[in-house]
Amino acid sequence: MLERIDTLAPLLAPNSVALIGASDDPQRIGGRPLRYLREAGFAGAVFPVNPRRDTVQGLRSYASVADLPETPDVAILAVPAAGTLEAVRACAARKVKAAIVFSAGFAEADEAGRALQEEMTGIARESGMRLLGPNCLGVFSPATGWYGTFSAMLDGTLMQPGPVGIVSQSGAYGSHIAHLARQRGMGIGKFITTGNECDIDVAEALRWTVEQPDINVVMAYAEGIRNRDVFLDALDLAQKRKKAIVFMKVGRSEVGAHAVSSHTAALAGSDAVFDAVFRQYGVWRARTTNEQLDVAQACARGVYPKSNKIGIFTLSGGFGIQMADDAEAAGLDVAPMPEQAQRELKALLPYASPRNPVDATAQALTDLPLMTSYVAAMLEKGGYDFFTGIFGSGPASPTFADRLREMLETASRTSVSTIMSLTMSAPREIVRSYEADGFIVNEDGTALMTALGALVHFRKSFDRAEAKKGGPEVASPVDLRAGPLGEHQAKKILSAAGIRFPAEALAGPGDDVGAVAATIGFPCVIKVASPDIAHKTEIGGVAIGIANEAEARKEGAAILARAAEHRPDARIDGLLISPMISGGVEVIAGVSMDPSFGPVVMFGLGGIFVEVLKDVTFRAAPFDIAEAHRMIREIRGYPMLEGVRGAPPADIDALADLLSALSRFAAANERSLDSIDLNPVRVFEAGKGVVALDALIVTRSSTP
To answer: Has UniProt tagged this entry with the keyword Ligase (predicted)?
Structure first.
């Protein structure tokens, strides 16, 4: 699928365009793209197609695609749904490389629309033509004047080019954030909306966008993901190339997820899995549209801090404390000024508070050299990666604004590597002027700290990608036989994949259970061995703490009797005997097949933590040991593994090995797997390893 990314160039960077259904009215859907192309000075050839007119908006019109003097790179189809199929046929016959379908009324509408969409897609694929849409708002790239869209957002003012990309399944949302970005003075480099995704999906669009050298950050919106491999490759490429992705993924709630399926016919997948995958690849998941814009604007310059140390300058102690709280919540380090620097500042203004936040008090308002000295000291001696100044309405004050600007310009010359940020309430032109000088500005201090925290988040993500020696080892698939697998078989298969289990023995029909148990040792555990009984405790199929041979014979017989009573249809292989193992920290691990991401590994603490608190996390398979360590540290119960109340630290390295091995096995066998459960798993103290006490493999052939 990745090789098809190259075929997007005719759509997203065309040299010639045909507009089928071109209108002489620049306000109509068929007229807007032509108007925008002309206003933007698109340098390529533009061919209006309208059999009822000789000219359209001053350009020669053609009766059909077949009549065009040359084959265009891309065709814009601004025709009703009923005429779209014929237009696609005409483009395919002319060997047009790509087409944009604006019209709605296809798969999102009803089954008849779905059938029409599938027929249209088939025609395009047979000819090699790429399709965007239907039911989309198109694309644009301001740097080249390419506007393949009918968005009314562009009425009056076209977009300025810049380092921000927008990739959205929803045309309305994509257009909305583009408009808001323009209001903030952000330039847009690439804009792509994918609509119904009959061919080109958000994964391909994202992958192409992060490849573009003029893009530093992408704002993305999706309701579901259709192509896992391309999507994950796009996230991986962005991380490696230091391109920030700020994602709005909808469908968090049950109601939202239902709306997704009815709106796009895309599977939303598990929201918790999306969260985990975004963490895995360093994507920032925005909670609100404003947050998405705040973070994208902070990332647009492509400048990231070396660490998370922040110095806060304020003229009011209360505002400073609030900002410090917000900074810590955003993962920033409000480190104190060095002691010597504090003493020097205290000497300048005895009643100031020079620790951090550095409060110069209202006295600094009337003493420009004093304020300059304070800010310069923070930049020169604080060792801060970020500087934040809290100035309220000061930058808009007729008596204070010029002095404040002079102070900041003078002081900031001392540290060009510090990321400068401000909170202020000022007219847009004043805010824009500060931003033009490299300041990150936000009226809301909490939002500003979130954006700065996102910069740290991306720096850590990019550093992880740089430190990687390559992906996880590729495991070889194994032959998982048809039908359900018993625990004994599952353990043998997973043992070969590198997962450790305790020694065990199978007492087959007619074997002396007591004698077999003696070879394992006492106390021991006896379980029914059956590929048809997945949850043995539910039928009384487990006995623990068996102390001797006689008890083993008695309990073994009782287990077989209960199995015959509750599951007379089940195949019984015998009784599985293993040693009693206690101690360590109980955890759970497993694999499930996510609708969007395929094999996904789950990890959490066992017992009440998973049953009641649901303290678990996920990763898309496969992943390496370093990622497994990050996964382990995400759960709320992680301190249990570090050792609490005198307990020794657990063998986290061995646990990470297990999770990575499980992920490689799952990825290698995803075509035949449905799920894996390792529960419980005991993690012993550091250096003593980890052991899974039970295993369940469910194959796809054994699920209904």
So the answer is: yes
Please report, for residues 50, 118, 171, 681, 696, the alpha-carbon distance to residue 526 in angstroms, rounded to integers and kept in the order given.
Answer: 80, 56, 60, 17, 16
Give the pairing of strands 164-168 and 55-56. unpaired
Q: Measured between alpha carbons, how far is 580 from 570 in angstroms, rounded to an integer?
A: 26
**Cβ distance 550 to 533 under 8 Å?**
no
pLDDT tens-digit series, residues 326-354: 999 999 999 999 999 999 999 998 888 99
DSSP string, 655-699: HHHHHHHHHHHHHHTTTTEEEEEEEEEEE-BTTS-EEE--EEEEE
Pairing of the two strands 217-222 and 284-285? unpaired
Tell me the average pLDDT across 558-577: 96
CB atoms within 10 A of CB 86: 12
Asked if 385 contacts 310 with a C-beta cutoff of 8 angstroms, the reply is yes
Task: Give residue 456's identity as a one-letter amino acid code.
Answer: V
Does residue 253 have a pLDDT over 70? no
| Alpha carbons 452 and 415: distance in angstroms, whole number | 18
How many CB atoms neighbour CB 192 within 10 A? 31
Q: How many helices (H) and strands (E) does the chain have?
A: 23, 29
Residue 1 near residue 60, CB atoms below 8 Å: no
> Alpha carbon of 135 to those of 79, 90, 171: distances in Å?
12, 20, 8
Which string of b and e fits 532-570 if b means at least 16 CB within 10 Å?
Answer: bbbebeebebbbeebeebebbbebbeebbeebeeebeeb
Distance CA 416, CA 410 (A): 11
**Taking the CB of residue 328, how many other CB atoms lie within 10 A of it?**
14
3-state secondary structure of 348: helix
Check if the beta carbon of residue 563 is closer than 8 Å to that of residue 542: no
Q: Evaluate whether 57 touches 38 at the Cβ level (below 8 Å).
A: yes
Strand spans (E) along 450-509: 505-507
User: For the chain, what is the mean pLDDT?
Assistant: 92
Asked if residue 37 lies in contact with residue 57, where contact means CB atoms within 8 angstroms, the answer is: no
Q: Beta partners for 169? A: none
Which residues, at least 6 apart from 638, have a Cβ–Cβ distance to it below 8 Å? 632
Report d(CA 697, CA 556) in Å as an integer. 24
Answer for the pair 527, 576: CB distance below 8 angstroms, yes or no. yes
Q: What is the DSSP letter of 522?
A: S
CB atoms within 10 A of CB 702: 18
Ramachandran assignment for 383, one of left (phi > 0), alpha (psi -120 to 50 degrees), beta (any other): left
H or E stretch covering 124: helix 111-127
Q: Which pLDDT score, from 0 to 100, does residue 260 have?
A: 42
In sequence order, what are the residues at sequence separation of 6 or more whose Cβ sits closer than 8 angstroms to the Cβ of residue 681? Answer: 586, 587, 588, 589, 606, 655, 658, 690, 691, 692, 693
For 498, what's the count of Cα atoms within 13 Å in the CB-facing half-sphere? 16
Q: pLDDT at residue 261 above 50?
A: no
Nearest-angstrom CA–CA distance, 355 and 342: 6
